[in-house]
Amino acid sequence: MMETFGASVTASPSIETESGRAILSQHPDSNGSLGIAISEAVEVAAKDPDTKYALGSVLNHVLLHQTIIGLETIEQMALADDEPDIIVGCTGGGSNFAGLVMPYIGRNIKGRSHARVIAVEPAACPSLTKGRFTYDFGDTGHLTPLVKMHTLGSTFMPPGIHAGGLRYHGMAPLVSHVMDLGLIEATAIQQLDAFAAGIQFARAEGIIPAPESNHAIAGAIREALVAKEEGKQKTILFGLSGHGHFDMQSYIAYQAGQLENYDYPAEEVAMALAGLPSLG
Ligand SMILES: Cc1ncc(COP(=O)(O)O)c(C=O)c1O
């Protein structure tokens, strides 16, 4: 689609950057990851005075821009004369989640709402539920400044789940901070459960969600089932972060029974965490 409009697109890891070549020399079959793609993009921007790089997630100013989602949602919920009891979003770098929930966390702190806020991440890349809250690099090639965040270690290579936007080793500093303060909860979902939830949602609503969003849907369904079990009425708000029209190959693979769950890669995370930068 981008090339249709004149861009030239190179898949990461590529042989066009030092960071990409370094990864490929060690892992010739690398699936790539957001951490590697960020290294390559930062390197290109740093070497070319005509090139600027705008990060699409993780950094706090990106989260701030996304809060338009939560601010609009508050207005829409007012029109519906309702308040969410539970708010759910999927977390890769944290931007769609923060955009939806941060305005509500503000209301919670001021005592104007009492919503439980739940971040849903993939079981294969569980930075909030299994990561450490410490300083780490935002990219695999260690070109970015250090950021205090929940991290699995910047060299951790997430398994090849089909929610590519959730395959990031860290979490936005602000999302990590509100997690540390106990203002949000986090849970992890396996990819088969995520796709099953996405298909259930598509059949009910006529919208095929992105694999990333399927994680939020699975989290919302999980909470709805708990409420049903308890015989309680709950208003559950979740973020549908994107459509799945670019992800048909993943849906084809899921329908053909070719997708698998991944166990939490504890050993690989331990290795990556052992390589965390030491701070003076
Ligand atoms: C549809 C969709 N949802 C969620 C994400 C996760 O990113 P973030 O956590 O920054 O919202 C991505 C990332 O590419 C995405 O494409």
Describe this structure in words.
There is one protein chain. This protein has 280 residues and is α/β, with parallel strands linked by helices. The protein folds into two domains: 3-47, no CATH class; 60-274, 3-Layer(aba) Sandwich (Rossmann fold), CATH 3.40.50.1100. It is 43% helix and 11% strand. It has eleven helices and six strands. A four-stranded parallel sheet has the order 5-2-1-6, with helices on both faces. Strands 3-4 form a two-stranded antiparallel sheet. A hairpin with an 8-residue loop joins strand 3 (132-137) and strand 4. The model has no long low-confidence stretch (mean pLDDT 96). Pyridoxal-5'-phosphate is lined by residues 57, 90-97, 165-166, 210, 212-213, 241-242.
Question: Could you list some keywords that capture this structure?
Answer:
11 helices, four-stranded parallel beta sheet, alpha/beta, 2 domains, 280 residues, 6 strands, two-stranded antiparallel ribbon, Rossmann fold, globular, single chain, binds pyridoxal-5'-phosphate, 43% helix
Straight-line distance between termini? 46 Å
Quaternary structure type: single chain
Bound small molecules, by name, code or SMILES, are: pyridoxal-5'-phosphate
What count of domains describes the coordinates? 2
Helix and strand pattern: HHHHEHEHEEHEHHEHH
Low-confidence stretches: none
User: How much helix is in the residues?
Assistant: 40-55%
Number of distinct beta strands: 6
Largest sheet entry? 4 strands, parallel
Tell me, briefly, the overall form: globular
